Amino acid sequence: MPRSPRRLTTLALVLAMFLSATAGLAHGGEEGEVDALDLATQAVAFLRAEPPDPTSAADRIEDALMAEAAPDDVDLRLVEAAGIALERGAEGEAIQLLERAAGIEGEPLGPVVTVTITPGTYVVLVVAALLVGLGAFGLGARRGRRVQPAAATGAAHG
Amino acid sequence: MAERSGAAPGRGFWRAIDERVGISGLKYHVPDHAQGLGYSLGAITLVSYLVLVVTGIWMGQFYNPIPDEARASLRYLLTSAPAGLFARNLHYWAANAMLLTALLHMLRVQYTGAFKRPREANWLVGIGLLALTIGLVFTGSVLKWDQEAVEGIAHNVEIANLLGGVGVWFSPSFSGSIPILTRLYIAHVSILPILLAALFAIHALLVKQHGLAPNALAGRDATTRATAGEPSRGTFLGHLGVAGLYSLIGLGLLVFLAVTVPAQLGPAPVEGIELTKPWWMFLPVFAVENAIGLGGLLWASVAIFLALALVPLLDRSSYLHPARRRAILLIYLVFAIVIVGLGIYAKVAPGADHLGMGG
Fold first, then answer.
1. pTM, rounded to two decimals
2. For B252, which of A16, A34, A131 is closest by C-beta distance?
3. Is B305 part of a structural domain of the chain?
4. Cys-Cys crosslink for B276: which of A115, B25, B148, B149, Cβ 3.0 to 4.6 Å?
5. Tell me, what CATH number does B34's domain have?
């Protein structure tokens, strides 16, 4: 009987190792033909990523300029200008140029969600403090109630 | 009659409610060792879940789970909907709190041997609850429809392909008329919460059935049988009161975080590239995926859950004190260190292309 858990563990480990190995073999994929519009859009994503990846973005811009498939709705002159801007280190400008080139309705640069302090913020902070205070007071009161009888018992024994 | 007229109004109301719903059934005695924070973690997890339900219902009034509309509706939620930004931030932090307290709860149960006979089934139910919680985190993280979300769905689809017939539901081809984002939204707001509520009900019933586990630290000879002479001055209802007070403190901290540290929304999604990393809870399996490819994500998850499920089988002696269970605790400590180490490695290591998309 004591052997069964050991056997189960060994079996599970062997199974996990086998599955990992087969899964590893299954890994991989084939790249399809990507057109200039998609490449320009991907370059924007690399520049907007946190942290930004200008090297991959520059690769995508280069690929976009050399892509065989270039739909009419991508302006390759702007893509080229974005590449030059990126070489200068002007990532923000490159993003705007690429978004114009690809006809993307761009979002403002920087984090989408920011903290704005309003009077309501202070109200919520007071509520947060009240909740913490109420919980701490309740726990303190309970502890006091538990200690009191024990102390009284101790005094009686003393 | 005389008794009724003499009772305080509040007490009479309480008695009337109790007569109908039987709250006093929860007034059974529990051992003193269970009245601290360590034994309140499960209840705090439940409170986090309730916060998620309430904030989720509110956000559901403004969120549109159609791919073309999702991001715009989320931006509306964050910028124009009443209390939308606050609800989303609170939802985000409550999700973190739920998973963190669930993991700490499991650590406490494992350290004190509270999963031992006759509580093995409840340990397995707890693992089911953890799996559903992670499912909720994943489906929730793709709803924001940013770069991380699109990459998450791409992983979801590839895993579905790896699973073959078993994974068909997770594949976009399962339904020709409803996009996978919408189906994951349905899973997030109805299927998974209902399953979680049902499993939690079983979890709570089994706690009631077996009572709280004996004190593992009472002495080296503490066993799964209730420790003789252990004081049990409090009741389970009182224990819930203590857990409620800890939850109030936790709720206050969540509200504070929701106001001061907002949940971010990543850049607009672009398909065909892979450049983000997932939430902290997925980082350990992400590290394995970095090392051995996409399948690593699946099989590392299977291995972790299998290791958790085996706990009651591997640690079957009736002793509870950690000193009597050193070997098994050491094995699981190493296991936990490896998981945390993998997570840290994935956080600092450069991202890798797992789906053959470039990046």
1. 0.82
2. A131
3. no
4. B148
5. 1.20.810.10
Q: Which residue has the tokens 């950690």?
A: B322
A·B CB contacts under 8 A: 158
Of chain B, the end-to-end C-alpha distance in Å amounts to 79
Name the token pair of B152.
């998450």
**pLDDT tens-digit readout, B283-324:** 999 999 988 988 899 999 999 999 999 999 999 988 999 999
Angle of helix A3-26 versus helix B294-309 axis, rounded to 10: 170
| Burial category of B320 from C-beta neighbours within 10 Å (exposed 0-12, middle 13-18, buried 19 and up) | buried
Give Cα separations from A115 to A107, B133, B141 (angstroms): 18, 28, 21
Q: Which two structure tokens, joined as six digits, stand for B351?
A: 């991202």
**Which residue would you say has higher pLDDT here, A74 or B152?**
B152
Q: How far apart are CA A143 and CA B99, in angstroms?
A: 28
Mutate to test the interface with B, among A27, A34, A63 (most CBs of B within 10 A): A27
What's the domain count of chain B? 1
In chain B, where does DSSP find H-type helix? 2-6, 9-21, 41-60, 67-79, 84-111, 120-143, 147-163, 180-186, 192-210, 236-260, 283-292, 294-309, 311-314, 326-348
pLDDT (tens digit per residue) in A14-43:
555 544 444 444 433 334 567 888 888 888
Q: Give me the residue from B233, B310, B359 closest to A8, CB to CB.
A: B310
Cβ(B147)–Cβ(B203) under 8 Å?
A: no
- Output the six-digit token pair for B181: 């984002």
For the record, the structure tokens of B240 come out as: 């819930």
Choose the closest CB to B270 out of A22, A44, A124.
A44
- Shortest distance, CA B262 to any CA of chain A (angstroms): 7
Distance CA B237, CA B239 (A): 5
Asked if residue A136 lies in contact with residue B37, where contact means CB atoms within 8 angstroms, the answer is no
B342 domain residue, yes or no: no
For residue B247, the enclosing domain spans: 29-210+221-271
Residue B172 lies in a domain: yes
The pLDDT of residue B253: 97
Its ipTM equals: 0.82
The helix-helix angle for B84-111 and B120-143 (nearest 10°) equals: 150
